[in-house]
Amino acid sequence: MIQQVDELEADQARIKNARILVVEGDPFDQLMIQDLLCLVGAVTAVVSNKREALERLAIEQFDLVLIDVRMAVRDGIETVCRIQEKRGFSGQRMIAMTDTIVPQDRKQWSIIGIDDFIFKPINPDQLYLTVAKWVPDKTITQDGRRSKKIEAPIEHSQPVDISAMHRMFHNNAVLVRKFGLKFIEIANSALAEMQIAQVKNDLPMLGRLGHKLKSSARTIGAASFADLCESLEKAAVNNDRFGAELLLPKITTLLEQITQQLEREFNERDE
């Protein structure tokens, strides 16, 4: 265990001062990835699509590009290809971010110039380990000692495992609050869209919204909510309209419980 902690701290130290471009279309993931990297001293820039990525690379040099290869509006794979085709970008180190991967993906990604991949929802330790493999070593010799980790509070029988967010954000209460509240905002917006899709009998839209919320729910430790969203996604794939209709009230109720828990948690810490 001590060796694992030492290795993680070494990875985090290596990332310090690395210049990283994040190409990510989801606002929640944008904020989360940027803040996780900033926690360990990386210099980050965030863009939402292929055009913005190419424009930023044309005026700045980056040690590494993190790119969501499943971006909905602009295919991430197309973005990778355009980056490698551009004169001056060839050889740019790139890491793919994805929630699914099959053997064919690995082969295709290697051919077009992707060096590695990170699974979504983002695990901080995996993020640091993978990024550290591909950025140049900019660490400066010093005593190397860091403050010991403070164990996160343990939560029982709650819709959100608060300890998951505390672990992810190194017990940074500001970031825990920021992403807890951001999730509530995004989830309520998606729920309103779900209700519109329900009225329109738009099952594919319900599935897309379920997929959208699934990853961010797991990120904040709302496993049961994520499972409901995944079930909604599967219902859409299977054209199970009745199953989808049954899931929506459960999603609504659980989101209310999550909101109450997080607001209570944050209010108690303010007192």
CATH architecture of the largest domain: 3-Layer(aba) Sandwich
The CATH homologous superfamily of the largest domain is named Response regulator
Head-to-tail CA distance between termini = 35 Å
- % residues in beta strands: 5-15%
Strand order within the widest beta sheet: 2-1-3-4-5
Number of helices: 11
CATH topology type of the largest domain: Rossmann fold
Structural domain count: 2
Structural Rg? 20 Å
**Unreliable stretches, pLDDT < 50, 5 or more residues?**
141-156
Q: Quick one: overall form?
A: globular
Largest sheet: 5 strands, parallel
Structural class: alpha/beta
Order of helices and strands: HEHEHEHEHEHHHHHH
Mean pLDDT: 83
- The tally of beta strands, per DSSP, is 5
Structure, described:
The chain has eleven helices and five strands, in the order H-E-H-E-H-E-H-E-H-E-H-H-H-H-H-H. The chain is α/β, with parallel strands linked by helices. The chain folds into two domains: 2-134, Response regulator (Rossmann fold, 3-Layer(aba) Sandwich); 162-270, Up-down Bundle (Four Helix Bundle (Hemerythrin (Met), subunit A)). Helix 2 runs antiparallel to helix 8 (173-199) and helix 3 runs parallel beside helix 4 (76-85). The longest helix has 30 residues, at 241-270. The protein is globular, with a radius of gyration of 20 Å. 33% of the residues are buried. The model is unreliable at 141-156 (pLDDT under 50).
